[in-house]
Amino acid sequence: MARIIIDPEVCKGCGICVSVCPIKILKISNIVTNKAGYFVAEVVEDKCIGCCSCAIMCPDSAISVLKQ
Amino acid sequence: MKQLMKGNEAIAEAAVRGGCRAFFGYPITPQNEIPEYMSFRMSEVGGVFLQAESEIAAINMVYGAAGSGARAMTSSSSPGISLKQEGISYICGADLPCVIVNMVRGGPGLGGILPAQSDYFQAVKGGGHGDYHMLVYGPSTVQEAVNIMYDAFDKADKYRLPVMLLGDGMLGQIMEAVELPEMKDVNSFPKKKWATDGSGIGADRRVINSLFIDPDSLEKQNHSLFSKYELLKRNETQYEEYMTEDAEYILVAYGTVARVCRSAVDILRERGIKAGLFRPVTLFPYPTNRLYQIADKEELKYFLSVELSMGQMVEDLKLAVNGKKKVKFFGKVGGNVMSPEEIVDNLVSKIEEN
Amino acid sequence: MEILYKKSRMLTDTPLSYCPGCTHGIVHKLLAETLEEIGAEGNVIGIAPVGCSVFAYKFFNCDMQQVAHGRAPACATGIKRCNPDKIVFAYQGDGDIASIGIAEIIHAAARGENITVIFINNAIYGMTGGQMAPTTLVGQKTTTTPYGRVVGINGNPIRLCEMIATLDGPCFVSRVSVSDPVNVRKAKKAIKKGFENQINKKGFSLIEVLSTCPTNWHMNPVQSLDYVKNEMTKIFPLGVFKDCQEGN
Q1: CB within 8 A of B223, min separation 6: which ones?
Q2: Please, what is the average pLDDT of chain B?
Q3: C204 touching chain B per CB within 8 A
Q4: Domains identified in chain B and CATH numbers
Q5: Is the CB of B83 inside 8 Å of chain C's CB atoms?
Q6: Considering the entire predicted model, what is its pTM?
Q7: Using CB atoms and an 8 Å cut-off, which of residues 19-58 of chain C contact chain A?
Q8: With a cut of 0.90, is the ipTM above it?
Q9: Which of A29, B302, C80, C220 could make an S-S bridge to B326, C-beta 3.0–4.6 Å?
Q10: C42 conformational bin, left if phi > 0, alpha if psi -120 to 50, beta if neither
C-alpha cells in the first residue's frame, strides 16, 4: 500500500494528476479551495499502488508519495 | 623602464597587469589590436580569451563572467558599443563590475574609422535604457590610459559598476614611450561574496539579477545605484589644469583633443593672450564643482569647449558653469582633427565677436 | 515508511509563478532532481532567461544569473570559461532561444561549449500574452496570428534540434516531451545525459522539451498535454538527433 500526500496550499488544481492516475483515485474537489482560491486535488479512495504518476506529473511539486 | 608601445596594446597589457583574466570581444576598427593582443596574452597568464559571434554576445559573456566573480572586460568602437548597450544596461542594473574600452570613431551609423568624440553622450549619460551611469575616463596620452586601465578593475570591483575608457583611433594607434606597472597579484584581490561561483545553496545562494518587478524594490535599486554615483563624484573626480591661474580664456577639452589644445595654449601665450586649458580626466563624474569655482574668476572672459563632435561635452560644461560665464564651442567632425593653429584662430575670432 | 516521491531539495520553497498546469514546473522538477542525483549541489550555476521562466532564479536552490533575452548561451559561456569545473546550465524558452537568441545558441553549440541547455518549446510567447513564437505551428492561432499562422505571411516553424545537430560542435541533441509519465521519465534521462556529458567534459548538450501553455492555447491542462502528444510531435518529432557517445 502507498499513500499520496497533497499539499493543498501548493496545489493549483490543474487536474493533471487526476488524468494520469491509472486507478482513478484522485479528483479535483468542488468544495475545498486553498488560500489562492484554487479548488484542490484530493484522494478519494485509499488504494494507491505507488506508481507516482501523479507526483511525477504535478508541475508544482504538491504531491509526495509514501510506501506504507 | 620605458618602452615604445602602440596605444591599444599598451592598454591591453595594462589591463592584464591590473588583473584582467577574461576578455570577450568582436573585431571592429580601430580597436582590433586589443583583442589581438589579448588572444595570446590571456593564454600566457592563464586567463580566458574568446572572440564572440557578435558584440551582443561578447557583452553578455562579460556579464556571465563578471557575475561569477572574474575580472572581465571587452573592447569595441562606436557601432559595436551601440550593440553592447543592452548588455551594459543589464550589467549596471545587476551591479556587476567590468571594464569596457570604446575607441570612438565618427558616426552616426557606420560613420568612419577616424578619431571622434561623438559618443560622449552615450558614454556619460547612460547609453542604454534606464537610469544609470558608468565611471568614464577620457585619457589623453598612452601613459595616462595605461595608468587608468591598471586601476580600472579595482574601481569597478569597489563600486560594482562598469568602468569605461573612452579613447579614439588616435589614442589607440599612436606609439608612445610608456612605463608599464608591475603585474598585480590576482590572489590579493578582495573576495566577491556576491558572485555566483556555484557554491551557493539555501540561504547562501547568490542571484545576479536586474529584474525588480515590485515597484518599491526597483525604486530602491535606482536609489542605490545613484548613491554609488554620489560616491564617485566625491572620490573619483579627476581633472588637470594648465595655465588656468590667470587665464582670460579657458579651453576645455578631453582625450587627444586636449593635447592639441595644450599646444594652442602655448601659441596663444606666446602671442600674449592669456589662455589656459582645463582637461576633465573623468567624464563621469564630470568635474562640475571645480569648473563652477573657476567660473568665479574675475579675469576669466569665457570658456571654449573644443571637441571632435557637434557639441556634446559643452552641455555638461554649461551645466557646470551655470550661466556665470559665457561658454563657447569649437568642434570638428568626420574624423578631422583640428590643428593648434585652428584652435588659436577660432579663439581669437571669438574674442573679436565679443 | 519509505518515500517513493518527494520534492527535490534543489528546488526552493518559493511557489512557482507559472499558471495551473503549465509544464515548466515539470521540467523544473526534472532539472532539480537531476542536479541532486549527479551531486551538483553547491557546485552549479544556472541561468534564467527572459520569458515566463524569468523567475527561475527564485526556484532553483543554487547560484543563479538572470540574463537578457536570448543571451543565456553567451552568459553561460562567460561563466563556464571562467569556472570550467562548475556545472553550468541555461534554461530558455522558444522565443528566447530560437528567435532573438538564435545566433547565441548556434555559436555556443558550434564552439562545443561544455554547458547544458534546456529549451522549453511551447510554441508561443507565454509571458507577453500569447504572441506567435518561432516554433508556433502552421495554422496555430496566437494573438499576433489571429487567423492562424500562415506560411506565406508568418513563415514556417523552426526545428532547432535538427539545425543544431548539423553542427560538428555539439555532443548531445535531443527532443523530449513531458506529455505523460512515460515521456517525463524519458525526458529526465535525456536531461541527465546532458549533465553527465558536461561532467565528463564532452561538451555541448541541448535538450528540447515539448511543453504546454494552457493559458495562451486556451485549453485546459489535460487537453494541452494531448495537443503536445497529437499535434506538436508531428512537427517536432521526438528523438535523439546527435549523440557523440554513439558516434553519430
Answers
A1: none
A2: 97
A3: no
A4: 2-197+204-236 (3.40.50.970), 239-352 (3.40.50.920)
A5: no
A6: 0.97
A7: 19-26, 28-29
A8: yes
A9: B302
A10: left
